[in-house]
Design brief:
Layout lengths: L5 E5 L3 H13 L3 E5 L2 H11 L3 E5 L7 H11 L4 E7 L3 H9 L4 E5 L3 H31 L10 H14 L5 E4 L6 H10 L8 E5 L5 H9 L16 H4 L4 E5 L6 H13 L1 E3 L6 E3 L3 E6 L3 H7 L4 H7 L2 E4 L9 H16 L6 E2 L1 H9 L5 H15 L4 E2 L6 H13 L3 H7 L8 H19 L4 H8 L3 H10 L8
Parallel strand pairs: 1-2, 1-3, 3-4, 4-5, 6-11, 6-12, 7-8, 8-11, 13-14
Antiparallel strand pairs: 9-10
Length: 470
Amino acid sequence: MKQDTHVLIVDDDESIRRLLSVVLAREGYQTTTAEDGLQAIDAFKAGAPDIVLMDIRMPGLNGIEAMQQMHAIRPGATIILMTAFAELDTAIQAIKLGVFDYVVKPFDLAEINLLVERAWQMRDMRKQIKVLRDELSESFRLDRILTQDPAMLALCAATERASKSSATVVILGESGVGKELFAASVHYNSPRARQPFIKLNCGAIPEGLLESELFGHEKGAFTGAVSRRTGKFEQANGGTLFLDEIGELPLILQVKLLRVLQDKQFERVGGETTQKVDVRIVAATHRDLAAMVEAGTFRRDLYYRLNVINLSIPPLRDRPVDIPLLAQHFLRKFAQEHGREIDGFDDLALATLQGHPWPGNVRELANAVERAVVMSSGKSIFAEDLPPEFAERARSAAADGDSAQLAAIAEPGGEDHSLKNLVRNFEAQVIAQTLQSNQGNRSRTATELGISRRALLYKLHECKLDSTEE
Ligand SMILES: Nc1ncnc2c1ncn2[C@@H]1O[C@H](COP(=O)(O)OP(=O)(O)OP(=O)(O)O)[C@@H](O)[C@H]1O
Ligand SMILES: [Mg+2]
């Protein structure tokens, strides 16, 4: 809003001050005026103007000196200098010192209007960028990594500690476990959060182009290099470079990467001059890097260099408590996105989700839930809304008896072989066993099973085990 934008007009010529005030006020800006450099500094301190429109030649403190003091007081203000033709050189020099622009006297009012308008747009854009960046860093805060699994919680704590340093981090884990989410958390929780976070997927770029992607190239470095191009290392300077699928990096580039990590410098492809950079590396892969080192496909020295901090994300099937948690999260998210009112999962649907091995991990779960939200016609998600192969897998495992565990569960189930019944029987068995091993003490049983005492009582009632004495 222009009404929120405060312009300070500084000129020793009263008629110019008055004219500019009237014109800019008509455009909607708030204006104040000052007669010379010293008054301007006072007004600058008192009014915190967004834009300063200032003459260069003034008695006492001139415009250049005043501008420098203003920059020292508050670097964010946008300063436009007004200059006579004779001082054009000074004005051009001032641009290097951080002045937004200059206008040569005598100017016409349209020109001034345009310039102030541009300064205003630039400030507005900067504000929007800040909002976006804050939102982005918000969405990568560690607490956005949903989990209740103890190993994952420990991993989040380790990630937070790792974020505070500039140490290289390697993130390992199967496809879809959240490697990129963790990589972004490392960056957005680090002191580099306001600097760039640049990603490069080493597996998605043709081998011949990878070097130039990483290090950039000079014009004419190779056929097709029609202009100079900066690489990811330069783009990430001051910030973090996320090398995804690092296991796909060809050996020859592994050597070059190692050198950058050691010397913090490199040359562009086809270039002579050495570029110095300060970049933090976070690498990720779904491959077993240690095994690749043994097999000779990943350099040992690079592995050690990268592997300063190692975050291994467990697959979803190893943290079953996260399945309902994430399922609920994605349900809420996709129900809102698709404008559907769905509150939860029916028991059988939840049991089906919990019984699935999730080879595609969290991403697969997100997709399954989104599909279910789209397919469902009721207020809950039912098993038949889930991908058909889920239920089939569970059913055939139960029917074939190929899993000793499922067979054991099925045993007391009687005639009813529905998954819901199997799951309930299994639950009853586990509860009964735990109760027994705790001599019937319900509080200890509840603690051991990781549920509240109230939930245990409810389940005991449901499984008709509630005659058991405390
Ligand atoms: N613990 C979690 N909490 C919330 N969302 C998660 C969690 N883990 C993963 N996700 C979400 O799941 C999706 C997949 O995660 P991500 O892309 O980080 O996985 P990845 O390990 O990089 O996968 P790939 O190996 O396929 O590249 C993303 O949308 C991510 O936001
Ligand atoms: Mg990824």
